[in-house]
Each structure stands twice: as structure tokens, then as C-alpha cells.
Automatic annotation (TrEMBL):
Belongs to the small heat shock protein (HSP20) family. The lineage of its organism: Bacteria, Bacillati, Actinomycetota, Actinomycetes, Micrococcales. Residues 21-132 form the SHSP domain. It comes from Cellulomonas dongxiuzhuiae. Pfam families: HSP20. InterPro entries: A-crystallin/Hsp20_dom, HSP20-like_chaperone, Small_HSP. CDD domains: ACD_sHsps-like (cd06464). SUPFAM superfamilies: HSP20-like chaperones (SSF49764). Signal peptide: none annotated. This is Hsp20/alpha crystallin family protein. It comes from the Bacteria.
């Protein structure tokens, strides 16, 4: 049985691969949740060289950068090359009430984990109510007259 070759279908497939690869390199999937007095952010960075990962804070903007280097095999015929390469970044604008000077970061198994503590002044607290003798009224000073 003969197979008909459709050059437009093949071009469409190749273009879809290229666009999907570019889109994938521009994103860093993440999970974010609050655990008590900390926010925890998990960012997927598979294949990133740990030495290229950079986390910085400028005012209220948290920036994460990483680089995935291309494979350098020579004299090979690639059959599929879908893994994105290059430098990619993600910026998050964070609200007030976080201790940005105390962020901790770990990188394990291709996942960058940032732990951001809630600032002391932003933590919920209870106000203690004093019990005791009733308050004495304050009298206004007498006026001369």
C-alpha cells in the first residue's frame, strides 16, 4: 500500500514542534501555597545547570532565571529535538508583608523550592483583653469662672 506524502502536513507538524518548544522555554511551571507563616514556591527547572539559577529581589519583584544548555553531540542525526534550551526567566510581583530578606532556596531533582517567610508585622496575632476593676471616669478640669 502506497503512502501519500503531504508536504503541508509535514510543515505543519514541524512548525507546531518549533512553536511548542519556544513556548515551553518561556515558561516555568510553578506551585505556590502558604504553610503557616511561610509561602512555599516550587518551580520546575528540569535540566537546568544549578550554577546558572539566579533568584533576585528588586523592590517587590521576585525574579527567577535559569539556563538550560544545548546538547553538544557532534556528527549525529537528530530524530527529535523537543527539549527547550537557552535562558529563561519568570518574574512575580509580591505583596507587602513578606520577609524578602529571609528567602531560602533549594534545588533538588530539577525543582527549585523557595520558602518566603511572612514578615513579623504581617502575622496574625491576638489582642489580650484585660479583666479587672471598671474603668474610672475621667473628669474634666474645672474652669475658672
Amino acid at each position: 500500500m502506497a503512502t501519500r506524502f503531504d508536504p503541508f502536513q509535514e510543515m505543519d507538524r514541524v512548525l507546531a514542534q518549533v512553536l511548542a518548544s519556544d513556548r515551553a522555554s518561556a515558561t516555568m511551571p510553578m506551585d505556590l501555597y502558604r504553610d503557616g507563616d511561610h509561602y512555599v514556591l516550587h518551580v520546575d527547572l528540569p535540566g537546568a545547570d544549578p550554577g546558572t539559577i539566579d533568584v533576585s529581589v528588586d523592590d517587590r519583584t521576585l525574579t527567577i532565571r535559569a539556563q538550560r544548555s544545548p546538547r553538544t553531540e557532534h556528527d549525529v542525526q537528530w530524530l527529535a529535538k523537543e527539549r527547550p534550551v537557552g535562558t529563561y526567566a519568570r518574574q512575580l510581583t509580591v505583596g507587602r508583608g513578606l520577609a524578602l530578606d529571609r528567602i531560602s532556596a533549594t534545588y533538588n531533582d530539577g525543582v527549585l523550592t523557595l520558602t518566603v517567610p511572612v514578615a513579623e508585622e504581617a502575622r496574625p496575632r491576638r489582642v489580650e483583653i484585660q479583666h479587672g476593676a471598671p474603668a474610672t471616669p475621667i473628669e474634666a478640669p474645672a474652669t475658672a469662672g
